[in-house]
Amino acid sequence: MDEKFEHGSLDLAHFIMNDIKFAQGENLLKCVQCGMCTSACPGAQHSDYNPRDMIEYILEGDNSIIESEDIWNCFYCYTCHSICPVGNSPCQANQVLKQIAIDEGIADEHLRPFLGFGDSFLNHGMGGIPQNFFKEMREDIGEDWWEFKNHLDDVRTQLGLGPVYPDDDSIEEISTILVKCGFKDRVEKIREIKDYEK
Amino acid sequence: MVSDNLKVGVFICKCGGNISDVIDIERVKESIDADVIEEYTNLCSINGRKIIRDKVIGDELDRVVIAACSTQSHLKTFQAYVQPLNPYLMDMANIREQCSWVHSTTDDDFNQKATDKVITLINASIGKVSKSEPVDPIVVQTPNSAAVVGGGISGMSAALSLGKQGIKTYLIEESPSIGGHMAKIGKVFSPVKIAEECGLCLLNPVLNDVVWNENIEVMTNSKVVKANRRAGSFNLLVETKPRYVDSEKCLSCGDCVDVCDKLIPNDWNDGLTNRKAIYKPFAQCYPDSYVIDIDNCDKCGDCKRECKMDAISFRRENEMIPLEVGSVILATGHKLFDPDLRPEYGYSRFKDVITQSELGRILGVNGPTKGKFQCLSNGEVPKNVVMIQCVGSRDDTPNGHKYCSKVCCMVALKNANIIKHKYPDTNIIICYTDIRTPGMFEKYYKHAQASGIRLVRGRPGEVGKKDGHLVVRVEDTVKREFKELDADMVVLSTAIEPSEGTNEIAKIFDVSQSEDNFIKEANPKIKPVTTDIQGAFVAGTAQDPKDITDSILQATASASKVSEIVSNGIEIEPFIADVDYEICDLCGECIEVCKYKSMSIEKDRIFIDPMSCSGCGNCIAKCDKNAISINGNIDEMIFSTIDGILKDKKPGEKRIIAFLDDIGYTAADNIGINRLSYPESIHIIKVISVNRVMPKHIIHALKTGADGIFIGEYPGDLLYDEIEHNMKKIRREIEMNNMNPERLAFSKVYIPYFSGLARKFIEFDSKIDEINDLAK
Questions:
Q1: Does B1 score more than 80 pLDDT?
Q2: Which domains does chain A have, with CATH numbers?
C-alpha cells in the first residue's frame, strides 16, 4: 500500500516520530521487544492486538500494520506508555497508525462508533461523551454518576458557575465552521456506512 | 623570530598515514624555518626516539617542536624522548586530532588549506618554545598512609593490599562490623567453576587477614564527616559512634540479648527476622562483640545489670578523630533498588513476592529459615517459582536506572540452580529480556538450562493473584503468546544502585559522580580507578555495578595506585604561582582572591599549595607589589605563539585563534577522534587557564592580523563567572582600539559535548566572514 513509506525502511518509524501525536521521539527506535507492554495491555488480553508486535512491524518497515484490524482494539488506557522501560509509547504510535489509515480512507467503518463525538460538536458546540455510551457507563460507574450528570447545571449554579454548554449563538457559529470546513459532510458519509456491525 | 643563538629542531610525524594522507608533508618541510627538520612514519615508536635523541644530542638542539598527535596522547612520551633536553623546552603541534582528523582529504590531492594550517601550527610552536624556559616538574611527597572508606569486600581487599605493602591504613566502616554485603550472600557464583561456593568461607580469611595485619586499623561505627585536600595529604575528620559495649571486655556470651525485650527488624536478614536492641551483627563479625543500637534502645539497663563482665556503659559520647593520610580509596558500595517503586509487581501486597537478596537469606544456612527453602506466607516448599529480571535496571521510567546492573542474570541463575539441586520438583521460570552471562559465565548459563530451569523471554507487566495463588502476567515474546504463569513464589531481581554512603562521600571529597550517581572515574576506558581528585581512588560497587571478583580487581588496582604515589609522590605541572618573599608584605589580598583556596599564611610566609594552584594568575593581578609570578614565562609565550600563528598571513586568508584550557582542548580533540569537522581557519592554542589570556594578548592578536579570537571555558571552573564578566571589559577595549568587538567570542565548553564545540567553531567562522565583508 502506501508509497510514502518504503517497505523495509525506517520511513514509517520516522513518520511516527515526527507526528505531533507521538511525543517520545527516538525512544521508538530503542524498543528491545521485551513485551512488557503486551503483558499489561487489556486490549491484548481480550483480542489479538499486540503492542509489542505492532512496534516490531513499524521498525521492520512492514506497512501492512496500517491495514491491520487489530490496531483498532487499543483504547488508549496508556498502561503501555507508563510502564515501557525504554520510554516508548505504543499507544501513541497506534494513534498515528490509525490516523494514517483514516487519511487513506480505509478506516471509515472503525470511525462509526465515534460518530457521537462528532454529533456532540455539531449539536452542542463542544466535545462530550456520546449518548450511546450512557447506558453502559451508568451500569459501570453507578447511579451517582447518572444523578450527577443529570443535575450538572444545578450543581454548577450552586458553585457560582455558568451552564456547561455554550449559548445558542456560539453553537450556531461553531456549527457553521464545521459545515464550511467539511466536517459535517465527513460525519454524514461515515454514518452512511451500512454494513458496520458492532 | 627565534633568537639567533637558539637551535630549533622540528620533527613531523606521519602517523602511518593518519596525518600524511591529508597533509602535504613535503610542502610543510619546505615552508618552515628551523635548524633541523625531520619526518618519520611513527615518531612515538622506539625508532622515533632514536631519531629525536640523535638529533637533540648530535646537533645540540636547544628547542624541539614535535608536530604529531595531541598532548593528551603522547606528551609524556615526547618529553622523555627529548632528554637530556628539559621537557618544557619541547612543544607539540597538534596536527592530527586538531588538523588532519577534522579537515578531510580533497579528491585526489592533499588538503592544501589544512597543509597551510600545519605550517601555521608549527610556526606557533616554534614561537612558543623560543620563549620557553627550563622548569622542572614539582614532585609532592605524600605521607605513607591511606584511608579506605567502606569495609565491604572492596574496602577490605584494598586495605589488605595496602597493609601488606607497608602502608599505614585506616579502614573506616559506618556499620558496627566490617564484611559488607558479601557476608550475607550465602552462596556465591564463581566465574569458572560450575558450582556455588560458600560466601562466608571465602570472606572469613580476608576478614581475619585484615584484622591481624599490623598496618591496618579498623574503625567501625565510624564515618568520614569532613575531608580537606592539603598539599600531599588529606585531612579527614572521622566521627565514631560508641558501641556502648566495651569490645575488650565483651566475651560474646549473649546473656544481654536474652534480657532485652526490644524487637527490631534484622538488616542482616533483610528484615525477615528480628533482632534485639543489643545485638551482634552476625556470627563471624568483627569486632567480635555486641553492640547497642542506641536509636532503638530505651535504656532500661537490664543488659547492663545482666553483664557479668561489666562491659556495658551508656555514658559514652560520639568521638571526633582527626586523621592525616596521603591517599584515600572510596569503597562505599551499593544498595538495592526499592521494589515498591515498581508497584505492579506487588512486593508489599503479596508476602511471597520477594527479592533475590531475600531469597539468598532464605537459602542461607545461617538465615531466617536455617536454609530451608520455603514460602514466607505458609512455610511450604514452593512448587512454582517465577523470577523477574531487570527490576529497576534497564528502565527509563521514573525512579528506574537506565544501566544494566550486570550481576542479576548470574544471581538469578545461581539461586535457581541452588533450588533445583536441592528441590528438583520445584519448577523455576526466569522471565528475562536478555540473558547477559559474558565470558566464562556462559558455561554456568548452559549448566542452569541443563538443570531444567525454564526461561521465558518477556518482561512481565504485572503480578496478581488468581484463585488464591500468584500469577505473573507476561507475553512470551518468542511464541507471541500472552501467559499467566502460576507461582507460589515470585522473586524480583532488583537493580544495584549507589549507596547513601557513596552519595555522601562523593560530596565530602568533592569527587564527580556519573549521571547515575556512582563515583566517576577520571577516564572510564584507561583510568578506571582514578577519580578527578588527585590521590583519591575508587573501588567496587561505589563506581558501578559489579560482582565480587571485579570488586577485588578494582580494589587491588586502586591499592597499587596508592602505592605509586607513596613511592614516587605526585608529579605536578610546574606552572604555578611563586612568591618573592623579599617583596611580599603579607597583606593577604592574594589569599582573598584565590578561587582555588590554594594560598594561606604559614610560618609568616605565603604558602601556595602546588596541588590546588591552577596557575590562573588571579593573584598576580591583585598583588600591588608585583611579588607574585607564575613559573614558565607564560605571558611572553602567549605573545610569541600568537606571532607564530599570524606569521606569513596571506592577503584574503582568514586566521582565527581559539584559546582553550585542558578541558576545551580535550573537547577539541574529541571532535577529531569522532571525525567531525570545522573550518581550517580555526587555530587552537592550549593555555593553562584562559584567565592567563590577557586583554593585551587579545588586542595584540587582533592588531597583528587575527580575524577572530575564540575563548572557551568550562562552566564548572571556579573562575568561570569572573572570566565571563571580564569579556565585557575586553570587548570595550577592542572597541576603543577601533575594532569590531564581535571578533571576540566566549563560549562554554564541555568534554562530552564536543559536537557543540565544533558547531560553535563553524558558526564563529561564518560570523567572522560577515564581519570581514562589512569591514570591506
A1: no
A2: 11-106 (1.10.1060.10), 110-191 (no CATH)
